[in-house]
Amino acid sequence: MSNLMLDLNQLAIFIRVVDEGSFTAAGKSLQVPKSRISRMVADLESTLGVRLLQRSTRQVSLTQVGADYYNNCKHLVAEVMDVHAEISDRQDRPHGVLRIAVPMIVGSGILGRFIAQYQQVYPDVRVELCHTDRQVNLIEEKFDLALLVGDLPESSLIARTVAETDLMLCASPEYIQRNGTPSSIEELQNMDFVKIGEGMQDESFEMTHMSGTVSTVKLKPNIVTNHIAAAMSSIIHGEGVGVLPMFMASEYLLSGRMVSIMNDWSFRPQSFSVVYPSRQYLSLKVRCFIDFLVAEIEELKLSLDTIPKNENEKVLLAYKKLIEH
After folding, report:
1. Is the dihedral of CA 184, 258, 228, 98 positive or negative?
2. Per the confidence metrics, is the pTM higher than 0.70?
3. Are 315 and 307 in contact (CB under 8 A)?
4. Could you give the domains of the chain?
5. Phi, psi of 91 (to 5 degrees)
6. Residue 73 and residue 53: Cα distance in Å, rounded?
7. Residue 90: is its pLDDT beyond 70?
């Protein structure tokens, strides 16, 4: 096997010299000094160990080996240049398949509308969502990015927190009708609890009253599931109360299948982040999706910032406005 190292620039320069008929003409067409053109061709000849061109004061002519080399390589270089130009041009518009890993808890609610709106803006991008609560390896599994809710794990991945999501206590109207509406932390702790996660151990939450009082509530689960659809179904069918992100619960609250409780209390918000393998050579489809998501969430935050948190009905109207946007 040959140890020759091919320099595509030298080969392209050689072909241009032959096409233009001289070093001077090739230099003018490429806006490169004649001396550099001559040096690159000479370096190519030195690498190959053959003379490709016969030089004269005004023009150049191909040797026999030079003619063979030119005829065999010209169409190959043209194809490489065409592909290079096509790839460069395509970077002006997002395209291809965008693979996103999404936790189960984000699988419902407003994300689907974000994706639909993104595709309306960038129709050449196809989106593949993988809903999973396991920790995926973005590089090995060929994901472009992942969305995370909560604290970020220690990782070499690039992370960008794009928003904070509010948590809220929810139950079905039927459950509240049977058990009453809790008015204190003590009453809440005596209610059935649908836990999203694993293990039957109690789950603790820090809650802050609108007066500023901070309390820790410990809820004992009667149902535990790591499948968000099952948890939502259990809450809707009156099996207990649940702690849900507002963006996920909003549709069920608007439809009346759930109601929010303990609205004078609030949880510590959770971060909503985008993670991706590297900043270097970040594809346009990924960059545009991140920018689009940030812009959509900023619009949501602006609409909610003007509404008092305890006025739950108005918060839901704001979500309705966003959903219908």
Report:
1. negative
2. no
3. yes
4. 8-90 (1.10.10.10), 96-164+270-308 (3.40.190.10), 167-267 (3.40.190.290)
5. -70, -5
6. 15
7. no
